[in-house]
Amino acid sequence: MAEISKKEKKRIIINNLYEAFTKYKQVLVVKLDNVSSNQIQQARLALRQQKKGIMIVGKNTVVSKAISLAVKSPKENEKGYDIRKDWFSDQPQVARLEELLKGKVGLIFSDAPVFEVKPIIESNKKPAAAKVGMLAPIDVSIFPGPTGMDPSQISFFHALSISTKINKGQIEITKEFKVCTSGKKVGNSEAVLLQKLNIKPFAYGMEIFRVYDDGSILTPEIFNMNPSEIISKFQNAANKIAAISLAVGQPNQLSAPHLLVNAFKNIASIAFGAGLSFKALEGLQSGSGSSQPAQQQAPKQEAKVEEKKPEAKPEVKEEDNLDLGGGGLFGDDDF
Fold it and tell me: What is the pTM of this model?
């Protein structure tokens, strides 16, 4: 198979980017610092197998060229017109991606939610040795214990002020020692020490830096939220808006359900008090088993008894009072 020239590779990447800009509304910008080509290939394969999108990596100048073509309509006299005329869609907002093309980055085109793509991309990490001059991403310490090194190299530990002793023919560290500090450059002595101890303290992989979503640029504090957090924040905001709208009497989509419920409660209260009934109220009475209608009927029944025997004063047992609701339950003080 003939090797593809650099010019041909560039043309293929530009065409792939141009097509992707028309198919996808979401682009994940990932950092590729200290990421191997093998890791990139594994990420591409995982995305393709799980049908979560495609990953395109190219020089920033090549990506910028593809963006410049994507934001303007193709003309017949331009090179590549036959391809671009079929893929072009007016998306001037894509130009915002150019401001993110700094350093070594890759673009992942995906319509899947970010929380589904993120584990695929960021889980593929490889251990790496500390190199001279690099910024340590984390603090690194070595702990007390045998090193497996012979006593002839003890001077190296003394030069770094590391507490050691000779035990069973090998050097043993007796006190914890901090080798690297997060955010500071790794020195030559620190790198050699970790190498001698066969320690690879760092792990590097792809990291989602920004998310472009149909013209909007999302930062990590936004796209890192999971669905439950988003729903919770939305519900809190909706509740606050509804409360404010009810307080000022402003009807809208959030306050209207509460206004309708409150209005029905008022109507139901008036209907109960006036002895009226309507279809919605009858359904409410039968469904809830409300005791209020019974309370309204009880005085009427008691009144009928009094009309039949106005002068009679029958003896009423304590058990009968309990059955009728008690002497004061339906008395004048309650109405």
Answer: 0.61
